[in-house]
Design a protein that fits this description.
Length: 288
C-alpha cells in the first residue's frame, strides 16, 4: 500500500465521474449550476480572461469555474497558453491582464500579490521548479507552511509528524530535508517535491503545471496518490499533455486550450479521445 491513508487523509472514491459529462462546445457552460455560488466556499471563477505578454495576446477569453472537491484537467499543445494561465492565477508579474476577472469566493484575486494569494489558499506547482542553492528543503517547507498558515497553527512536532507521513507517502528519503531546494534534483525528484509542498500547504486552489512530465509509471502513481490525498478540500487544476496521469486522478472535467481559448470541455472521455486522435480534429473545428 502507499502510505497515503496513514497521512491521515482519506482518498475519496472518485468512480462516479465515468461517462457523466459529455463533450460539448464552449458556450453551454457545463459548470453552471444553481445560484448557490455566493454561499459556497472555495470557488475560483475565471471570466473572459485576456492576457498579453510583450503586447502579444496569449489568453483570449478564458472562462472556468473551479469548485472545492473538483478536479479539472487542462490540456493543450505546447505554446497554447497553459502555463500562462497558471502563472497569472498565482500572480506572476510579467503578464498584462487586458480584460476579464478572476475571483476566489467572490473576492478579486487579480489585485492581490502572489504571497497574498498564497495566504488565501492558492498554490502553484511549477512546470520548471526553481533551484535555490543555500536554502535547505526542511527549512523551506517549515517556513513556507508558517508563512501561509501562520506561526502557531502547528507545533514543530506536529509539523514534523505531517512531514514524515507525507514524505513516506511520496516515497521520499529523509535525506532530502538536508539538500538545497531543487538544487541538482532529478526531474522526478523536483515533481515529487512539488507534491510534497502541496500535501503540506493544504491549499484551497491547487494548480499543478505538468507535474506528471518526466515521471516513470511508478513515480506518476505515487504523485497521483499525493494529489488525490490533497484534493478533497481543494479545487484542483491539473495541466497536462498526457491522459496517463488522468487515469489515476480521475478528473471531473477536461478542458482543451487551443490558441489561448478553451475550445472544448468534457469528461474523462475527452482526454481519451485526445490521446487517440490528437488535437487536429479540434483545431479544425475551432477554425471552422
Ligand atoms: P504552454 O504552457 O501551453 O506550453 P505557455 O503559456 O508557456 O504555453 O506559452 C504560451 C505562449 O506565450 C507561447 O507562445 C510562449 O512563447 C509565450 N510566452 C510565455 N511566456 C513568455 C514570456 N515570458 N515572454 C514572451 N513570450 C512568452
Ligand atoms: Mg507550460
Amino acid at each position: 500500500m502507499f502510505g497515503v491513508e496513514s497521512y491521515g487523509l482519506t482518498i475519496r472514491p472518485r468512480m462516479a465521474w465515468m461517462g457523466r459529462t459529455r463533450l460539448h462546445k464552449v458556450g453551454a457552460d457545463p459548470l453552471k449550476q444553481s445560484g448557490l455560488d455566493m454561499a459556497e466556499e472555495g470557488v475560483l471563477k475565471i471570466r473572459d480572461l485576456h492576457v498579453e505578454i510583450g503586447g502579444e495576446p496569449i489568453l483570449k477569453g478564458i472562462n472556468l469555474t473551479l469548485r472545492k472537491g473538483e478536479i479539472h484537467a487542462l490540456m493543450g499543445r505546447n505554446g497554447s497558453g497553459k502555463s500562462t494561465l497558471a502563472n497569472v492565477l498565482m500572480g506572476h508579474p510579467d503578464y498584462d491582464i487586458t480584460g476579464g476577472t478572476v475571483t476566489l469566493d467572490g473576492e478579486d484575486l487579480l489585485e492581490l500579490a502572489a504571497w497574498e494569494r498564497a495566504r488565501k489558499g492558492v498554490f502553484l506547482s511549477f512546470q520548471y521548479p526553481q533551484a535555490v542553492p543555500g536554502l535547505k528543503v526542511g527549512n523551506f517547507l517549515r517556513k513556507s507552511v508558517q508563512a501561509v498558515h501562520g506561526d502557531d497553527t502547528l507545533s514543530a512536532r506536529e509539523f514534523r509528524a505531517e512531514l514524515n507521513a507525507a514524505m513516506e507517502a511520496l516515497d521520499m528519503d529523509k535525506k532530502f530535508l538536508g539538500r538545497y531546494v531543487n538544487d541538482g534534483f532529478s526531474g522526478g525528484e523536483k515533481k515529487r517535491f512539488e507534491i510534497l509542498q502541496l500535501m503540506l500547504m493544504k491549499p484551497r486552489i491547487a494548480i499543478l503545471d505538468e507535474t506528471d512530465s518526466g515521471l516513470d509509471i511508478d513515480a506518476m502513481r505515487t504523485v497521483a496518490n499525493g494529489i488525490n490525498a490533497s484534493v478533497d478540500n481543494a479545487a484542483c487544476l491539473i495541466i497536462t499533455h498526457y491522459q496517463r496521469i488522468l487515469e489515476h486522478v480521475q478528473p471531473d472535467h477536461v478542458h482543451v486550450l487551443i490558441g489561448g481559448k478553451i475550445v472544448a470541455s468534457g469528461g474523462y472521455e475527452l482526454a481519451v479521445k485526445l490521446e487517440e486522435k490528437g488535437y487536429e480534429w479540434l483545431e479544425q473545428e475551432a477554425s471552422a
